[in-house]
Amino acid sequence: MNPNPLTNSLNNTNKKNHLIPKIGVSGAADMGFLNEDVYLSAKEVGREITRQGAILITGATTGFPYWSAVGCKESGGISVGFSPASSADEHINVYRLPVDYMDFIIYTGFGYNGRDLLFTRSCDAVIIGPGRIGTLHEFAVCYEDQKPLGILTSKEWETGDLLKIFMEKSHRPNTHVIFDDNPKRLVERLLDMLPKEKKHLHAYKNDDGVGGSKGERVL
User: Fold this and answer.
1) Domain residue ranges in the chain
2) Which of 17, 133, 157, 218 has the fewest beta carbons closer than 10 A?
3) Quick check: 83 and 115 in contact, CB under 8 A?
4) Residue pLDDT, tens place only, 18-61
């Protein structure tokens, strides 16, 4: 018997699975410039996404997103990847990207830039870890779309500080961005930013038996 409430819900055709929150993870595909503790941070992000009843979405890549997928699957969660490639063969042999720790891979065929757009717009919220230009691109798309963004901060990387400067210099206020150095708290705060029908796995019944935020939780 599967002890994970998320996978149990997905296996129950009576549940409104389309309401399960999808949290994306963006970050550096090459973490060679970071210390080994970052791998643990990435895995903990993936674990918390699973523990708190959400589905993990990544760019089907290496580095920080990959290790978040490792944490997700080790916790019994659901992991979905959006590949820049047009096929599994291209994904593996041309882009040299992994297929492990993903339950599904969508082969977009749009390269990295097009993939970024499809990836971010398929998420209800996105967590930004340490990253470089690709991560900044995904942040910019989410920022422009007013999508809830959680910036994982750490003394080990400067991405959070750079994004604060980016936001300040953009002269475009955005109340959908939060900063936190704790993965558990960051996921909690992101879920709280979602509309009521998208919060906390949404496996609730209200008074009329329809999914909502009132009444008995049914997992």
Assistant:
1) 21-26+36-202
2) 133
3) yes
4) 789 999 999 999 988 888 889 999 999 999 999 999 999 999 99
Q: What are 177's strand-pairing partners?
A: 149
Confidence band (pLDDT; 50, 70, 90) for 8? Answer: low
Token pair listed for 187: 């996921």
Q: Which residue has the tokens 């009444």?
A: 215
The amino acid that residue 23 corresponds to is I
Residue 86 and residue 83: Cα distance in Å, rounded? 8
* pLDDT(209) > 80: no
State the SS3 of the chain: CCCCHHHHHHCCCCCCHHHCCEEEEECCCCCCCCCCHHHHHHHHHHHHHHHCCCEEEECCCCHHHHHHHHHHHHCCCCEEEEECCCCHHHHHHCCCCCCCCCCEEEECCCHHHHHHHHHHHCCCEEEECCCCHHHHHHHHHHHHCCCCEEEECCCCCCHHHHHHHHHHHHCCCCCCEEEECCHHHHHHHHHHHCCHHHCHHHCEECCCCCECCCCCECC
- For domain 21-26+36-202, which CATH number applies: 3.40.50.10490, 3.40.50.450, 3.40.50.300, 3.40.50.920? 3.40.50.450
Q: Write out pLDDT tens, residues 175-199.
A: 999 999 999 999 999 999 997 656 5
β pairing state of 125-128 and 149-152: parallel
